[in-house]
Amino acid sequence: MTDQNDSKNKVTRRGFLKATGGATATMAGMAAGGLILGSKRLEAAEIPNKWDEAVDVVVVGSGFAGLAAAIEAKAAGASVVILEKMPTPGGNSIINGGLIAAAGTPLQAKEKVDDSPELMYQDAVKAGLGLNHPELTMMMARQSAEAVEWTVKLGVKYKDRNTHLGGHSVPRSYYTTNSSGAGIVRPQLAKVKELGVPLVTRCFLDRILRDDDGRVKGVRVYEDYRFPDTESGKMKNIRANRAVIMATGGFAQDLSFRMLQDPKVDEKVESTNQPGATAEGLIEALRLHANPIQLSWIQLGPWACPDEKGMGIGYIFAISAAFPYGIMVARETGQRFVNELADRKVRADAIMKTGSFAVGIADQEGVFRTAKLDTMLERGVVKKFDSLEALAEAFKIQKEWLKKTVAEYNAHLKGGEDKAFGKPFQKDCKPIASPPFYGMNLWPKAHHTMGGIQLNTEAQVIDLYQKSIPGLYAAGEISGGVHGAVRLGSNAITDCIVFGRIAGKNAAMDRPWA
Amino acid sequence: MTDQNDSKNKVTRRGFLKATGGATATMAGMAAGGLILGSKRLEAAEIPNKWDEAVDVVVVGSGFAGLAAAIEAKAAGASVVILEKMPTPGGNSIINGGLIAAAGTPLQAKEKVDDSPELMYQDAVKAGLGLNHPELTMMMARQSAEAVEWTVKLGVKYKDRNTHLGGHSVPRSYYTTNSSGAGIVRPQLAKVKELGVPLVTRCFLDRILRDDDGRVKGVRVYEDYRFPDTESGKMKNIRANRAVIMATGGFAQDLSFRMLQDPKVDEKVESTNQPGATAEGLIEALRLHANPIQLSWIQLGPWACPDEKGMGIGYIFAISAAFPYGIMVARETGQRFVNELADRKVRADAIMKTGSFAVGIADQEGVFRTAKLDTMLERGVVKKFDSLEALAEAFKIQKEWLKKTVAEYNAHLKGGEDKAFGKPFQKDCKPIASPPFYGMNLWPKAHHTMGGIQLNTEAQVIDLYQKSIPGLYAAGEISGGVHGAVRLGSNAITDCIVFGRIAGKNAAMDRPWA
Q1: Strands B460-462 and B358-363, bridge-based pairing
Q2: Cβ distance B277 to B92 under 8 Å?
Q3: Are residues A212 and B44, on separate chains, in Cβ contact within 8 Å?
Q4: Is the model's pLDDT at B2 over the cut of 70?
Q5: Which residue of A lies nearest to B210 if distances are taken between CA atoms?
Q6: Which segments of B396-444 are extended strands (E)?
Q7: Tell me, what's the pLDDT at A46?
Q8: pLDDT for B30 beyond 70
Q9: Count of other CB atoms within 10 angstroms of residue B395
Q10: What DSSP state is assigned to residue A36?
């Protein structure tokens, strides 16, 4: 038996674990991706004698949550710094789809939509299979409308109608005018700049520094870090007079870590996330004994196109055309196999069970709300055909089977009820009959990691013994419990803004240490 | 905001957290049960100057896994001590049902059952929804037959036919002659005694002691501990010359810890486990940075009767009569609602969705294989009636609805196909028509916690950085990954014996420290 922690073997600082095939390589290929860090020495006193810099609140991560936290902390009078490991700010948020759910909003009032935080809560718990931490989910729902209002005050522009996404009982999602999370991140970044909050990119969090008295007092970082080279950068210790806020996001791009929790999400499953969505921030919080919550629930996006990298743009065709106004069929059978508006988990699992790609299909009437269609066509992500036969041939679907499926679907639509899969038909949905026809391959990608560290409603990080860790806050995808087993579309931004703001306000008011 | 870890507030040693409703009480009633320990000081050097005792291998826990580990470690030449926190040995294993799955056994050869480790592996992965760590599940399957043989050599007596349990493709489960895990634990305990291995009861593990060099070197325990009084007992430091083996079991009885992972498993859900099945051993391993795996997967037993405590005996009626030869109906509707032989998770979820108790029903023909029926009747767990009407009245089911349900079921049976829920009918299954009729209330109980700390196939504990923790091994329910999302019945003992033996052998050969 080999002892890989042998004290004689000096481990490199934050060095990649080599997949040796030895005793610790428990999963084939598990070290093939992701940012597995070298084993760290159990340090007795981590607090440096001299700090390189000092600030009231250190925010780690520059997505929706981190930026919201920084803005609120600064507004509450604290000095703040934002640390971002990647070369550009915005994290995964800047490539997010730009939909934010809220209950009791002006848009809902205008459209006479009857909604409430309670209903939003119930929808989230139903999708979450009851794994949601009730008080966190309720906090998100109760503060959702205020969160939207807060972004509007920052200058965020939204489309003038609510979007009705799967799993939500009513239309309650605001949609940025540019159909992207960048529509929120950019005004947040402008506000950060206006407030004079420094944002340091290429700055890698190596350690959260906790003192013998149990309090978090700062961070050890590496500046001029070049992702993903964990040996790069120059060490610096930053004192946090009041608190550290972890807003480092999820781990959908961390192949090794996510495969430990769900081995199905292997190298064949790509991710919609930016490459920096790795687990080392989460792991560092676990090192400080943050309580791990529901880490094995990894959400796959059913609207992802395997013919493009990352999030891409094909999902827009899926969610705005094929799913609500068209159909999804299995390539091998030419048949529908699931309610195209079922929750993400149901749809993603169903697609993977087909064993081959699924194909999303809509006709000319079905794409009337689809933004960026020309770009999708140019990139070859979505393909256009004069006839269903031509579409079938291009996607290698048996023509007669596909025509039969479309005829059945049109008959259900005419009858007003989807007798096959119970899809709720949109009021303005028309039969699939008007050329040209559009088709796109579908295969799930890892999209959101529901699990994470435990928070309370004050955004304090809770440890294994159910105590808050003094001086440590968190918000956004690094945390678990808000969404339970399955996150509803457009609840992510709400989560990030609500808890980011709470973390920022509370961190700014936390007890300074002498 | 309160800071519950304020260094000025002295926390009591291992004191219960009071549910204060303050910032850290994140879930209503979450501190109502379970063994939440007080926050521990982050200690720099935990190794005592002087050890009270020394032994080569310390085994924590005295169930199937711990005893198997102790026997193998001693047989390999190590001095061993077994620590058990409860007043009596055997843990939850001693009240286990006594079924152990194995592929390629003498009984299968006798019955001409075509089986293989690969098929056993596939069954486990199917039930486990693909969350299984493949190499662990395969190790269990490959060593399963040898595990049974090992128990036979210890003197364990099995019934002379294989049992075919739900989810297994073929009959592959050995059943102890006394239908209890005690049939295995008692011979294990006898062997431990014969080998001269001391087993200390009422001995609580407070700390695993890890040195600055990263190696586990012993444990701090409290002897004369009175469960669950975390203030009781006398401290002692035991040096482990070679290794510590954690075999402390699952946390199905730990209301607070399990509710953090799955809030649905609340105080209304009892547990089949002995009261000592709490999480503090697992939490202590997490404190040492063992990697948490799939903690949110908690198995509920769908065959549990809410009218008796713990595992009870009513489950025998459910699994040998009502499910295979009878029906299960919702009390409120009088209707069946699920395939009574579906997997545990499907059935348990379905019962909880009824919102009221379910009732298991069988007639005189259906109980022909039901052991202990008289005892169940005496205890009032199962009730007997001359007519279906009388049964309906006693269980508050609408009589006509129940009669209609039974008539429909009998018609399906006659037709050879369960058109309602697809239950595979037993060959010797007869219509429900022969009085007396038997009924029992059903409501799920927490039964097994699939998640736990990460192991490799050498039973070494793997940390957050994917390195083994030197000197630390584990086996059994404290570990995660073997069963994935859902454990098949009778795979638990196999898991415990296989990995317990591996842990014992490897711990005995581990590098001694000077």
Answers
A1: unpaired
A2: yes
A3: yes
A4: no
A5: A42
A6: 437-442
A7: 76
A8: no
A9: 20
A10: P
Peptide bond just before A228 cis, omega within 30 deg: yes
Q: Are strands B216-223 and B234-246 parallel, antiparallel or unpaired?
A: antiparallel
**Tokens read off for A430:** 């028309």
Partners of residue B45 in chain A, C-beta under 8 Å: 44
ipTM for the whole predicted complex goes beyond 0.90: no
Q: How far apart are the first and last CA of chain B?
A: 48
Closest alpha carbon within chain A to B18 = A466
Residue type, A215: R
User: Shortest CB distance from B465 goes to which of A6, A37, A451?
Assistant: A37
pLDDT in tens, B251-278: 999 999 999 999 999 998 999 999 999 9
B163-196 residue pLDDT tens = 988 889 999 999 999 989 999 999 999 999 999 9
Please spell the DSSP secondary structure of A414-476, one letter per residue.
HHTS-TTT-----TT---S-SSSEEEEEE--EEEEE--EE-B-TT-EEEBTTS-EEEEEEE-G
Q: pTM of the predicted model, to two decimals?
A: 0.88
**CA geometry: angle B207, B208, B213, nearest 5 deg:** 130
Q: Which residues pair with A55 in a beta bridge?
A: A240
Let me know: does A462 contact A468? Beta carbons within 8 Å: yes
CB pairs under 8 A between A and B: 205
Give, in degrees to the nearest 5, the angle at Cα A151 between A68 and A461: 25
Beta pairing class for A358-363 and A437-442: antiparallel
In the annotation, is B242 catalytic? no
Residue reference for tokens 């978090």:
A216
B37 touches chain A (CB under 8 A): yes
Distance CA A197, CA B252 (A): 48
Residue A484: other Cβ atoms inside 10 A? 30
**What string of H, E and C letters represents the secondary structure of B356-397?**
CCEEEEEEHHHHCCCCCHHHHHHCCCCEEECCHHHHHHHCCC
Paired tokens of B95 = 């009240």
First CA to last CA distance, chain A: 48
pLDDT of residue B197: 98
